[in-house]
Amino acid sequence: MLVACSTVSMTGRRQLNIVSEADILSASLTEYQSYMQSATKSRDAAATAVVTTVAQRIAAAAEAYLTAVGQQADLQNYAWEFNLVEDPQLNAFCMPGGKIVVYTGMLNLIGNGPDRDDELAAVIGHEVSHAIAKHGQERASQQMLASMGSSVLSGVVSGASSQVQSAVAVAYGLGTQYGALLPFSRKHELEADYMGSVLATLAGYDCDAAITLWQKMEAQSSGSQPTFMSTHPSSTKRITELQKNNPQVKRDYAAAALFPSSTAAAAKATTTKAKGATAKSSGTSKAAKAKSTKATTSAKKSSTGYRIGN
């Protein structure tokens, strides 16, 4: 067992992990394999292909980002798997090591509209972000601290493997209640939302689809929270954070996209350009004032990066 501080590279947040990555990967793989033995994979080839295509692009974006920031070593521990599982719950997850599962209930909610792939990218990007930010490792560490207390804090721990396995089982909520993931912290959720927007953008999707997705799930709840929302709380604050962060995400990462823009993202970009052209041709009477304002704004502008909350 290792006690170490690390940094989530995409956000700069410091995190404490008392569980080694080797232990968390081994334990989570055991939980994932146990889950898949009882899960029913979808026989809908077309739907499965949609999930696989989007998930592969998100995975490629995650790999490209980790490589760019010098975390290639983490990729050695990833063996991506993409699954569409028959389950009516509005849910999805990604275990450490890249094991992705999307429930048919989530895909049915998303539907087959023009934003289908973008909204699915928001779901998968969010879940993959939990994995690459090592939120599960943090959560298992918290579980071990809660159950073992001073023995962990003093670094005197024996039988770590069985303890990690137990912590992962509790932390991920798998086992007898497959897929009923326990909630990440509010900070983890907001961080995964932001990182999911980055991954979706790098993969060529419209990150604003995350906003319409959460709105769909809220409308679907009808007073009772579906599983995905109970473990991934949606709120006005959450949507506000996405609306605040996404414009900067696009400015920072859209030009580095690994794939052509999705149909919806391309259409949105075209509309934006058209509006810009219309505004530009509206006359020169405001040109001097606009130029002055732009210069003043540029002089005052500073990049604040990612922030949780205000």
Entry keywords:
5 strands, 310 residues, two-stranded antiparallel sheet, mainly alpha, three-stranded mixed β-sheet
Your description of this structure?
- This protein is mainly α and 310 residues long.
- The chain has one domain.
- 60% of the residues lie in helices and 8% in strands.
- The protein has helices at 21-38, 45-68, 72-75, 104-110, 116-132, 135-148, 150-153, 160-172, 186-202, 209-221, 227-231, 236-253, 263-280, 287-300, and strands spanning 4-8, 13-17, 81-85, 92-95, 99-103.
- The longest helix has 24 residues, at 45-68.
- The chain is globular.
Figure out the total of helices. Answer: 14
Distance between the termini: 36 Å
The total tally of domains equals: 1
Count of beta strands: 5
- Helix percent reads 55-70%
Morphology call: globular
Determine the structural class based on helices, strands and strand pairing: mainly alpha
Average per-residue pLDDT, rounded, comes to 76
Low-confidence stretches: 150-159, 174-182, 277-305
Hey, roughly how much beta strand do the residues contain?
5-15%
**Biggest pleated sheet:** 3 strands, mixed
Radius of gyration equals 21 Å
H/E series: EEHHHEEEHHHHHHHHHHH
Widest sheet, order of strands: 3-5-4
